[in-house]
Predict the structure.
Amino acid sequence: MAIDPYALCPCGSGKKIKFCECGIDTHELERISKLIEGEQFVATFDRINTLLKKTPNAAWLLAIKGEMALRLGEAEVFQQTAERFVQLKPTNPLALAMQALSVLISGSAPLREAANYLLSSLAESAGTVPNMAAEALAMLVRAVEQSGNEIMLAPWDGLGFALLGSEWISNSARSKVGLNLMLKSASPKGQVPADAPWRDRYQEAQVLTQGFRHAQAESKLKALLRDFPGELTPLMLLFDVQRTLLDDDGLIATAGKLRDHEGLDAEHRAYYEAMILAAQNEKRMRVADWLAGYELPAPDEAIARFAQEASFSAVPEQALEFRQMIAQLMEEEVPPSHVYLLYDRPVHATSEQSEGEAESDGDVASDMGMILLYGKQVDKPARLYISVHKFRDYPQRVRRVLDDIALGAELTDIGSLDRFSKPVLEFLNRRRLVTGTGNPELVPPERLAPLLADEFPDVPLEEFGQRTIGELVQDPQHQWTVRALLMLLEGAQFIQVPPESIQQTFQSVGLERPAADQVPDPRELDGPKILALDRIAPDPLDDEQLTRLIHLALAFSAIRSARRAAEVVRSRESTWKDPSARYLAATVLSSEGSSTEERLQMLEILEELAPQVQDSPGKWVVQRFMLLAQSGRSHEAQDVMVKAMQKYPSDPHINRLVGELMAAQRGAAAAQPNLSGGGQEIAGGGPAEQAPGKLVIPGQEDEGEQQSGSGLWLPGQ
Ligand SMILES: [Zn+2]
C-alpha cells in the first residue's frame, strides 16, 4: 500500500504529508505502516528507535511511537514520548493532546494541567481535532467526575458535544442520572450594553475563549475587572472561564461576588450560591452528626443488647464486601466484626418476639446512622464507633440503648468516621425501608414525598454550627444558602418524588417555588434555567410541546421530569394512540422507578412498536428477560427468550445475550468480559472504572444502576 502524499501528516501538524516540514520520510512511513498492519509491534518499535537515533527531532516518529505505546498499554514509554514530543514541538496539537493524556494517565499533576494542555491542543489544532485530543477529553471528564469536582463537568461536556457531536453521547455527563441538573447546565452569560466602556475588551476575551485560549481570557477579564470592578457581565464570563480551567479557588471567589451582586435577580444569586455549595461539597452542606468512639470492655454484652433492639439491623456476616468497604472508609485494615444499621423504627422481630410479630407493617423506617464494633486486636482493645445523625431525637434514642451496656474510655482518635456524614440531599434521600414486608424494600416515591417536605426544615447543618435549615432561613444572611439547597433539590433527578413534594418542601421553609410556563429552548438551558425542565407542568402542554419536553428531559437525563411528561402522554387517549408518542413515553416508563409490572408491560409495548419506528425489538426483549430474571421469575424469563429466538432469529441483541448466557453456563468468564486489551487498560481509566466502589447496603438502591439505564437513550438522540 503506497502512502497518499495528500493524507494528513501523522506528525499532527495538520498539514498534508507532501507539504509538511517535519522531515517525514514516506518510504520509512510505508515500511512502518506495514509492520504495524502485520502486528509486528516489537519490530515497529525497533525501527522507530533506530530512526530516532538518526533524527531525534523527527516529530512524525515521536507521534507514531506515542500512538503505538498508548495502544499497547506501555504507559512509561508513552509518557516519555509525550514529554519529549511536547518539549520539541510546544505548539503541535498532537503533542499537546498526548501530553494531556499522559498527565491524566500518570496522575502525576493536577487535573488542571491536563485541562491546560488539552485547551492548548484545541487552540492550535485549527478545526481538525486530533483523535488523541478526543480521547483526552473523554478521560478528563471521567477524571473530573471521579475527583468529585462535578461542578467542572458542564463546560467540558459542552466542548465534547461541540467538537464530537453525537459521538460524544457515550461519554457525556448529561446522560448521568445521578448528576445534579444544576451541574449539567452551562454557565449563564450576561448582556453587553452597547455603550459599555469595557465592551471591546470583553469581546476580545470572548473571542479568546472561542479559540480555547482560556488562560489568556482569564488574565484579560481580571485586568478588565480591575478597571471596572463589579461589572456583572465580565464577572459572569470569568466564572465560566475559571470553571473551564478547573480553577476551584478562583471560581468560588467569583461566584461569591456574583451571589452578592445586587444587579442579579434572586434566581441567579441563589444559583451562584448553589455553585459554591457544589464546589465545596466535601466541606459544606453536611448534616451534623454525632461521631464518637469508645473502648468496649464486654463486646458480647453489647452484641446481646443490640440483638434485642428491633430498630438495629445487624449486617449479616456474609456481607463481606460491605464490611470491607467500611474498613476502607475507616482507613482500618481489618473490617469491623459487627455492623449495625440504625433505623428510627423497628425493622425486624427481636429475639424476644416470635417471627410472626414483625413490627408495624408498612411503616417507613429511615436510616439514623450506624454502629461499628471491632473485637479485640493484638494492639487495640475492643471498640465501638457511633455515627448518628443529629436529626430530631436520634442521638438520644441511640444513647438510651448504649446506657444499658458498659462503655470504656472515650476514644480521642475516631479515625475517618466523618466519612459517613451525608450531604443534605443524600440525607433526605437516605436509606429507608418499608417495614414488615419480610424483605427490605425501597420506599416508593409517594411515600418519600411527604417525608421530604416534613424533614427538610429540621436538617441540622454541620457548617452552620448545627443550626437547622428552618433556622437558617430566618436569617437574612443565609437566605441564599437555603434557596440554593432547594434549587439543588430540584436538580436532583435521582430523588423520585411528585412535583407537589418539591413544592411543599419550598413551602416548608416559607418560600415559593418559581414556575415555568413553557418548554424551554434547548439553547437557553444555562444556569438556573435548566430547572424549567422540572418546574413546567406537563398537563397543559399540547402534544408537540409534550414530546419536545420528553426529548429535552431525556437529553439531560432529567428522568423525574421525563417520567411526569410520559405519564401525561399515557393518560391522553389520542396521544397514546400515536405510535411514535407511545414509543417515546414507553421508553421512559420502562426505566427504573416504575413498578416491575409496569416496566414489563411497557417493554412489551416497545417490542411491538420497535419495527414501526425503525428500531430493534431485540433490545427490549433482552431488557424484559433481564428484569424477569432479576425478579426471580426465571421460568417466565426463559419463556420470553425462547419465543423471541423463534420470532427474531437474526436479532443481534438477542443473539448476543444468548451467546453470553451459554458462555456463562459453560463456566466461561462471561461475567468478566476481557478488558485487558492493552490500549483499553491504559486509556480506560484503570480498575476504578471497571469496579466502581459499590455501596451494597441491603435495601438501598445503587445509584450507579440507575445511571446505566441505557434504555433511556433514544435512536437519533
Ligand atoms: Zn509532518
In short: Residues 100 and 114 are 4 Å apart (CA to CA). The pocket of zinc ion is lined by residues 9, 11, 13, 20, 22, 24, 59-60 (CB under 6 Å). Residues 669-717 have pLDDT under 50 and may be disordered.
